[in-house]
Amino acid sequence: MRVQQQGTMNLSLRSFTHFQSSVFRAASAKRFCITPAQKFAAAWHPIQACANHNRSGPRTDKGDHFTVTTPLYYVNAAPHMGSAYPTIAADALARFNRLDGKRVAFITGTDEHGEKIALAAASRGMKPQEHCDDIVASYKQLWESLDISYDSFIRTTDAKHEALVKTVLERVWERGDIYKASYEGWYCVDCEEYKDEAEMDADRNCPTHRRPCQQRSEENYFFALSKYQAQMEKLFEEQPGFVSPDARRNEVLGWVKEGLRDFSISRAAVSWGIPIPRDPAQTVYVWFDALNGYLSGLYPDSEAEAAGKADPEELLQRGWPASVHIIGKDILRFHAVYWPAMLMAAGLPVPERVFGHGFLTKDGLKMGKSLGNVLEPVALVNAYGADAVRYYFMREVSFGQDGDFSEERFRNIVNANLANDIGNLLNRTLNLLKKNCDGKIPIDTSTLPEDHPLRALAAERAPMVASAYNKMRFHDACEAALSVSGRGNQLLEETAPWTAFKKGDDAAKAEAAAVLASVLEAVRIVALMLSPVTPALSRRIYQQLGLGDHAFDALQWQVGTQWGDLKAGHQTAAPEPVFTRLEGDWVTDSAPVGETSAAPAAAKRPKAAVKAKAKVA
């Protein structure tokens, strides 16, 4: 790409940043004057008023807030498993932090502007807003079917979002970090960004989408990212955990060390977008637009005026800065480089953490419609249910690394862990309790000794599970929780309480009854520990234990994981299976957007439907 700042010569982008710094220094005395935006920032943190400040942004204690975000998903097509996967993870993290007493703001949503959206709408014979509304409906339906408990669904076409974007843009402008320049280069419509020669193949195809890039020449507005080189270096020095996992952090560090380059934040030829306030002939670049959705998502729809002010102190009260942005590793540069610099320029704190998750494959192969192996989340949930889907991807894939979906392994893991280890354990124990104790808990479980095998293991595993959730090591959390139910199964086999009930004396029967009580208390704790991942299953377990929805909805981690909740005489429910074994095969059956409606309601059922046999746990 070649860039020409107004009144300057053409030069390559790599040399542009070095040239740019000298241009900025000589531009005018205004560069070093305190602008209204800088005064605003200085009131929050004095160092922000300095043009050459080296801070990563104001750092403020936000108390017990916990804010987690998914990407704002691009609505060029219906949601896919790559959209569902990080959303399930974000939901599990949000649910755990609610249990842990945090004031959670879980933000998801859609990125709806840009050339790609306009083209997708045109291909369907629809207006852009109609197309967006249709795709958004499919996302919301999928999130509902997956039990996604978001607090805010932000759309970049929302009035509150447009108001906030314009405010942030104006603050950055007043700081002197936006300028106009001409440039030419190779543009990927799918990526919505320009590519360097080194990034493309010999035929100038995008390495990600394998489609030819388009040569374009345009006059746009640029954000002076190069100005924030020192601040970004200091951010990574002072906050080594800002980007994780380590492989993603090293990748970002490499980009920063190469030297930050200014990037275009407007488009002249794209009408479907937010107009630049100072130049309505241009629209805001989709990434400068969409990233601000993490801020606008903190405001209710009725508070567009408040969002338009984007008051820093108020944002802190609403949960900013974000505790973690969960994103795909393919959009890491935008979130880990562009976004923090944009926030610094606007006088706002940077997020605490950016987590780049891996990609998913199917049977070891990259998924694609041309290969006929697309994993459709709607069909998967229709076939197997939300808990099974949530559990498999959180248990089987180490979050942050690439993961694979195999239907055979999917069924095997879910059946072994949820149907057998938990479901069958609960059902057989409740049936024994009903037959021999009238379905009532025979003892106060808190009276069992602390070195009781299940009590001791549950006490040991609870903090391990909590730590794993906090670190987004969901597979470790699931494994630690399942070890408790696994020990419960072992205890039943070792003690064989059914034998004591048939042939034993009163003392033996009392011991057998105590075993049943201990197993049920252990299953209760397992249900709580897994509830961020399998909320519906955990709720059913509580119902079977006679604890009901009220007890489940009022759960708190520290209290709920303490041993002894089941008391003597407590009546359990009539035994019913809580999880049906997965049987049969299914076939993905997808249609490109434009051929059918993208809404999940129009999705086809698997050709070979799951056989709902009476094999229950």
What summary fits the major beta sheet? 6 strands, antiparallel
Uncertain segments are 1-60, 587-617
Query: What form results from the Cα inertia axes?
Result: elongated
Strand content: 5-15%
The DSSP helix count reads: 23
Radius of gyration: 28 Å
- End-to-end gap: 61 Å
Structural class: alpha/beta
Question: Would you kindly provide a written description of the structure presented here, covering whatever features stand out?
Answer:
The structure is a single chain. Helices cover 47% and strands 14% of the residues. It is an alpha/beta fold and 617 residues long. Strands 1, 2, 6, 7, 8 and 10 form a six-stranded antiparallel β-sheet that branches. Strands 5-4-3-14-15-9 form a six-stranded parallel β-sheet, with helices on both faces. A three-stranded antiparallel β-sheet has the order 11-13-12. Strand 1 and strand 2 form a beta hairpin. The chain is elongated, with a radius of gyration of 28 Å. The model is unreliable at 1-60 and 587-617 (pLDDT under 50).
